[in-house]
Here is the input.
Amino acid sequence: MNVCQQLAELCLKLYAINTKFPKQERYGLTLLIRRSAVSIESNFAEVYRRRSTAVYIRMLYMSYCSVCGIETQIFLAEDSNVIEGDGLAVINTDIAGIEQTLKALIQPIYNKPLTPRPLESLVASGAAIGG
Here is the structure.
């Protein structure tokens, strides 16, 4: 299974678990976890649209940080007895796997020289500047 599939599955699992949260968490943990789940997937999707090593690494780190945020939010939900059970163990396993995968993507390129596209090549190709 590739990273995109892992992230999509995690997002769906988090949404499913969120439906069981108490109503008073609608604007608390429920909202935070859903936003983080979407953020991970969105940041990772942007990774493959970027043309420079620096931006690529930054987007991978942003995805990794969002995964760490979800991990913290899940621990908080568990500690406050908002969620429990087998689904929680699966989510924690999925999160750990995604963290390892993102680290594995970051590590080999972390110390490589940065290779931004020169401005001239963007203008020549007609690409929009800044995106």
Notes: The domain at 3-125 is CATH 1.20.1440.60 (de novo design (two linked rop proteins)). Residues 53-79 form the longest helix (27 residues).
